[in-house]
Amino acid sequence: MNDGSPHELSAAYALDALDGDELEAYETHLAGCERCREEVASFRETASTLAYDVDLRAPPETLEHRILAAARAERPNVVPLRQRVAIPAAALSAAAAVAAIALGIWAVHLSNSLDRQKSIRKDQKALIDILSDCSKTPTSGSSGAVCVAPTEKAVLIADSLPAASPDKTYEAWVIVGNSVQPAGLFRGGAGRKYILLTEPVRAPAKVAVTLEKRGGVPAPTSAILLQAQVRPS
Predict the structure, then answer these.
(1) Whether this model's pTM surpasses 0.90
(2) Who wins on pLDDT, 208 or 70?
(3) What are the respective helix, strand and coil percentages of the chain, to the nearest 5?
(4) Are 183 and 174 in contact, with CB atoms under 8 Å apart?
(5) CB atoms within 10 A of CB 83
(6) Which residues neighbour 83 within 8 Å (Cβ) at sequence distance 6 or greater?
(7) How far is CA 215 from CA 38, 72, 167, 176, in A?
(8) Distance from chain centroid for Cα 93
(9) Residue 15 · residue 43 · CB < 8 Å
(10) Among 17-26, 197-206, 216-225, where is mean pLDDT lowest?
(11) What average pLDDT is seen over the chain?
(12) Are 168 and 115 contacting, i.e. CB atoms less than 8 angstroms apart?
């Protein structure tokens, strides 16, 4: 639980969630605390990765080509009439239909990107809420910890796990008795990673990580690389 120690405010400071006396006190503490400076840098790196890992795609270039091709394919019968050109309604309808399809596809891309941005901001807030008030259990097998909030929401902290190959992924698990539930995928890599678990952690429980095929699996198929036994506080 958060005991009021400045060390527990690193996540909030990294995402500019402190103000007033609390901000001033933390910055005074930060000037002399190497541990907190490292944690703030790590939080900011994670937040930056989340915030900018959004692919705002432009409409595929081939759509423009298809629109132009469709318009050209409908060869209008040009009828001179007092120096005016008559374009068949069928040609206009075909071009308009293709343009409408292109616009619809672009709208879907934009909507998906905006939805993802909202999801990222929601995850960032959830990380701060958990890390600011949690019980921390160190992991065995590799450096890291599991932080569990009073709400039973949890964050796995993994330090410097080797990056998974393109056809592999790390998968987190929440294990209670004989029940093993998948709780999130992540790539690993240099530095500290914060993984917001998708399953609640109700003590007593074990949180474990295995290396699985890309996309994840419904049950572990390889050896546990790190684990934490979360006990009732």
Answers:
(1) no
(2) 208
(3) 40, 25, 35
(4) yes
(5) 5
(6) none
(7) 31, 43, 9, 23
(8) 42
(9) yes
(10) 17-26
(11) 77
(12) no
